[in-house]
Fold these 4 entries.
Entry 1:
Amino acid sequence: MQNYKDLEIYQFAPKAQSAKRKAQSAKAITLIEMVAIIAVVGLAIPPLMLMWQDLSYRSARATAISQATFYAQELMEEIKSKDFVDPDDPTNPALGPNGETYPNFDDVDDFNGYSENPISDAPGYNRCVTVDYADLSGSTWTGNCSPPNPADCNPPTCNPEDATDYKRIRVLVSHRFGDSSLVTIVSGF
């Protein structure tokens, strides 16, 4: 005859093995679950990639505009540090260099028509300058030269009678995302 204790062990052993097998099978992923995961990930990746692409574009654009503004400000500060009129001929109203070349410009209007294509040490950025005489009409500054408000880097044509005590300086920096410009008015007073 068998001992009761032996019978008890014998009866519980198969149950312990089947519970162990169930625990192992619960850890595995079925084929249907794997297909569902692939479908969800496949639907989620394209919108995330588009969002990342847009974020990259906006970041590069903001950086380019910031750098272009820096290059414009850098040249504007250099121009504003010069004399209002030519120290060699203060009565000459003509705009543009009077025989000088950059970096030896000695007054603000010597920079009229000046351009750097590309800016040294900054490939992909071009900058140019226009200078013209300006008057205040109400609350708006208008140019006295032709064209009165140049939109590009072509220097305006000024006649001696267009001369005023104010000069408008415009620095335009072009880059792959567009243009950035700074405009200021300087006075002879």
Entry 2:
Amino acid sequence: MAVVARRMRVLGPMNPGKAATLVEMGSELDRVRAGVWARFSGAKTAHLSKRQIRDRMMAEHAPAQFNVPQRLWRATMEDTVDKIRAWQHSVIATEVRPTIYARADVDMTERKRQLVLAKSGRWRDDAWLSRHCRNAFSGKRPMPRRSGRIVVDNCSYDVQRDAQGWVWLAVMTSTRGKRLRLNLGPLPPELVPTSTIEICPDGLGRWQVIAAYSAKRVCSTRPQHQNLTPVDGIDAGVSEVFTTTDGRRFGAGQYEEIAARAERDKARGLARNKLRAVRNRHLDRAAAAWEAGDATTARATTPYPIRGIIPHHMAASQMTGVPKACRCAWLMRRINMSHWS
């Protein structure tokens, strides 16, 4: 399912208390990201899922080391693991996958096995794949930047709409029972956040909320407004360039032009394929002659570039001494001369 991300700016001036709270939470969550990147971006943990990593860190009482609610810590940890896996998959797709295809060019079973191991992070099970993956990841370990992003799941915030129709976001904070309210303005119902969101600075001294929606939900072709205004419609077709709402046609005769060009391209393709077949046949004969040790036949049947040896205006009487393959190609060219014009 296609997903669309939308940025929604927090409206109104934000008081210093709210801004300080968001900055403090963002700095704490940056520490969480740095720790997850340092521990779980290597080869030994590439096969672990988000749940396995979360359970391992929960057993170590990792959330107690940060001054953020456990829900925000978990959402940030899972988001960081997703980014680590996306980075690993991109490196494997660009540097390791071509070598897998080159090695297992014929053996489809072996290719599938190595692709599954590479995608699931279990490349250490295969010595050859492990070596290539380690070489691909060497020197490419990224450092997470301190962005101050706050990842919030749908259980860590509430959404309310006031009497004026403005949407307010109540986000969980480090203080138990206290929530921070952010004004998102008069959002339409289809843009009200319902899943995991991200609160981050916009680089201009203000804050913004990034939410993800299904493309079918927010990019529908159906009209979203009740009061529709008439517009002129244009129908693009083949018989003409386009037709307006009132029936005016522009570019009549386009179909004939397209059909003529298609026939011309088809004739050119057929002539080119005939020449290629003649050339490939003589190449095969020359290769067989070389393998048999018949150098004379091999030289006689080796085709040369047509344009460099036989100009298109050369007569048949001028073909003395030209190899047989080039003579055949020349005859094919004369026969299909009408297709090459």
Entry 3:
Amino acid sequence: MSQQATQLSQIVEAVRAFEKQWKPQGNRSTFFGSMDIWYYLAINDNDTCTACLMLNQGVYMGIDLRKLFPFLEVINDDQILPRVHPNCRCTMLRITDPRDYITLMEPTPTCPEGQHWSDAQGGCVAIPKSIPEVKIQ
């Protein structure tokens, strides 16, 4: 079984468990519970850092978010900004249904080692050797 198929299977199981236990509670949402599932989405262009590229398209449980992304910012019930580093442009989207994940998992073309796909460039581009130093004032 491929890694994506295994990951999708785990997501489907988690969503089914969520649906079994979920009870409507008005507008109250949780973000960091064991039943909250989040999809990491990086902006895929020449300015994207290696750290964000490595996290791109990852699926994370809410219970792990505070440890993995200590500077995260909740935007609304379905979106979190992970704030991996200053000027991070990535976002995390809530997965409430396995079909959401399937829609998000558009195949990305495979690039040679040391390169990543850039939607902006419409092709493979070199991954920077190091992350530029950011000075915070």
Entry 4:
Amino acid sequence: MKGSVKTNSFNWELKFSVAGKVFKDVSFASPLVGFIVTELGGVYKTTDGGNNWTNVMNLGFPYYWYGVDALNADTVVISGFNNQVLVNRFQPYAGGSGPIYLSNTDIVNGVIKMGISDLFEDIKFQGGFRISTNLRDNDYFASFQNLRRRIDWGLTYYRLVQNDFPIYNPNTEPIKTLLSNKLFSNIYMANFSFPFDQVRSIRATVAYRSDRVVLKTDANFPSALGYQDTLLRYGMARLEYVHDNTINPDLNIWNGLRYKIYMDVASRLVSGDQLGGNTFNFGTDIRYYYPIYRNFIWAGRGAADVSWGNQKLIYYLGGVDGWIAPKFNNANRPAPDATYAFQSLALNLRGYKQNAANGNNAVVINSEFRLPIFTTFFNRPVNNAFLRNFQVVQFLDLGTAWNGQFKKIGRPDEIYGIPPVQVRIKTAGVGPFIGGYGFGMRSTLLGYFLRLDAGWPMGGFFNGKPQWYFAMGLDF
């Protein structure tokens, strides 16, 4: 049976709307009690048939709810997307090889997270796993968070499985570098947070970490079975002070100031006949967002890290956070007289590959003008998430990294070639910093916030081909 309905025969009346939220689904458990879910993690509840609605959950990015089923007046099942990184920790030092991935090494992967909480979100249980397209490099985690009292605390377990991690030194273990391996990382972590007020808080984590590298069997090298596993175990702690008085009028748009100051300590746990090591790292990350016109803002950031100890942390300067298919400069080798336990990235520095410079100290300065086209110049709501969140960006980045004391800071050279034949070229920049500039675009697709940037090194006006960056994640 076919037919048509004349919509003008109904008297439609807008009962409820929320600025910046896109309603995706609604479900009623009874004629009076119902729920609405939105993009950006919002859930609203009514107990009077839809005349009044109360916000009962507002998780924000990266949660995108697309379906809801009300089982009863107090229980609902919600489905959607979430592209949040499970756990992002320092990696074991890989001997200066790259590229560097701070999370799963696969370019495309899917995350499944499940959770349950009470009505006021004071008690939360979460679990999840990330499956890579090769079905081998996967992550798993489980978390419990207690937010009932002023001191928040929680427990988290994280496991990473990664194939062919370049952990061996070719100078001391040449055979192992030629064999396939599998890295198993396990982190058991407890976290605590004490808020002084709505803006300021102090946070701490303590953790036990183990990294086990297992050599795979090889038909061409049967002796691989005789090698013992490489096992690294660490006790870790982090203390940070956080100040955040920003407001978030739109996705990837903030107004105000936020910063954090932190200290990391890691101690290698060994038996009595082995030599242990200690890693210390002190750093800060300061971000200021200045409104220019409506949602058009200028965003500035300064970040610095200093590492010391008999097993330091090495920073590779260059690239962007969340870079898909990153490129790495293998010609720039770490200092041979330094001993490193972990590695990380110093970001952002666009116009360069990863490892434009490296060392146990790093400083970066970033400037971005962010213009959301449709939410800045149009007064009407835009239901399409890609258009609503579409932004154009102009950026300028400065950065440096060096090994040793502060007096050794200097502008890094560009290095080409492989030892013993290498060429060093003076780079353009400001003082001890090399720099890059360019333009980019931002928006959301299927719940993921995507970034596309084209960066040029300083030293010319759009001279040569740009370095392209396709990445995921908010802010810098």
